[in-house]
Amino acid sequence: IHLNPVYAILQLHPSLSDLNDDIPKKELVPKPADANIKHMKDKMALKNSDQSAVNEEASVSLVYHASSSSASRKYKRSMTAEGQNQIEFGLKPSGYLHFLSSGGRGMADRKDSTLSMQLLLGLPLEERLKKWFCQVKQINRFVALKHLAYGYSEVDLLRVLHSYANLVQGLWVCKSSLLYDGDEAMQRDYILLLFSRRKTICYHQLKCIKLDHHLFKCMMNALAYERKTLGNWKFKESTDYSFIKCYPNIAKEQEKSWFDREKLILDFVRKLGKKIPQIARASLTSKRVKAKTAHKADSFTCMAKGTIDVSAGQTMTDETREHLPKALLEIFNDQKVRSLSSIVRGLREMALFKSSRPKEDPKTRLLVNAAENAVSAPLEDLLSIIHQVTVEIHGVHVLKHAGNPALDPLRNVVINLFQGKEPYAKLLKQEIKQAAQVSLKRDISDSEYTQKAKGHCGSRGQGIRSCIMGVSLSTSLRFLKSHALFN
């Protein structure tokens, strides 16, 4: 491919008639007939003298050497001698093409010098994907993997993918168990878990990692770019929304898979000796905290507020501030009572759901952007917008207005009573009627009370239990689901 032997050489002499092309045409003046005859005689004499000169002067002698001769081998060795940036002349055609397409990187830089597309396509799909993920690229888009699965359907590809890769930000990332063993694999899973929630990971979120510095750098460089000025790592690839739109069920299955493994991963990392940093992901806040009897209310409030670490984000933009209240109203229509972590989860799920729709209008895009930016915004900025549309009751939030102006006055009375009570308190029917009489300056009828109690509270006997029932956030949310305070 690189050196081609020469089998024949043709030696040519220029014709004297070509010299006339260099003579300007203005010099070619017609001459008399006698002059032409004399010129022809002189030309014939000159031709004879030139011919004799050519015959006397021998041409350059060319000697042919076969490619197997010692002279040819000597020149070939000198031409293929090692240099600073020489091509590997022992390459096969596929390797030579890879050298040209990869910008001059030799096959020696690769883990497997025999790896080529021709070799991969000759393997079963399982081995094909395993080699690709482990030796070529750890992060892949589905459209690129379809070319690798030539000869197989998309159904076959998706079936096999689950065994070798996890879905992160809509992209398929090589499973940690294929690259590392034991503690190293679990710690890489923790990193992937963080990236599945957000595109960036702050330095302080990785303090719990117990890896050799070189190994940690190699692991992170394969997944993300380090941004020292911002103090974080950013995922290498942009989110593949096209895959999420085309395969929403698979995206949800993968998200559930991360959720199911979450506790195992966090427990393992927590055992490494340092408290795991909090993550801007509601599902990572489901750890059960036992409240102390003397500080039940304070403990619950701190738990609700301390479950999210969004202080590392950038300042919230004016566009996000403008459209975030609309996004909050939308998620509260689905679930009337939400903790701070539940709000973050709702915003993220809303953004994911709306982004997966085939057609997306500009207004929806603004809501999606506001929801995505809110979960990474500073906690103070996020709370300021949340408090514009909600009221906080012992660590959970409800809308200020339920949408029915006729019921809002009585609703506000119930909210004020709950705020004045302890988290484990009950509201009695008589208390609500007395408070309504003072605040509304009128008596409420039994039918109005029944409508409010049955439609918005879980009643038991003569009392209404407060919405803050459990010792942990998850317990409270389960109670709210079965005994909705606000419908």
From TrEMBL:
Query: Mind naming one GO cellular-component term on file for this protein?
Result: RNA polymerase III complex
Instruction: Set out the biological process GO terms recorded for this chain's protein.
Output: tRNA transcription by RNA polymerase III
Which Pfam families does the protein's record reference? RPC5
Protein's recorded name:
DNA-directed RNA polymerase
Q: Which organism is it from?
A: Vanilla planifolia (Vanilla)
